[in-house]
User: Which sequence fits this backbone?
């Protein structure tokens, strides 16, 4: 979505690029944690669910 808006509004390009880079880093961290099967991902999901209203 940010990428689409950046096409229409070029000054938002840096924000879109930073968001995409952050998303890739988080996805890679989660992929590695799941590959190790150390339970940390399941713990984070459980914590996230418990914090939701």
Assistant:
């Amino acid at each position: 979505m940010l990428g689409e808006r950046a096409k229409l509004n070029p000054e938002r390009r840096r924000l879109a690029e930073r968001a995409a880079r952050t998303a890739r880093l988080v996805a890679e961290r989660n992929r590695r944690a799941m590959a190790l099967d150390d339970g940390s991902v399941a713990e984070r999901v459980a914590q996230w669910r418990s914090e939701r209203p």
Observations:
- The radius of gyration is 15 Å.
- Helices lie at 2-8, 13-36, 40-51.
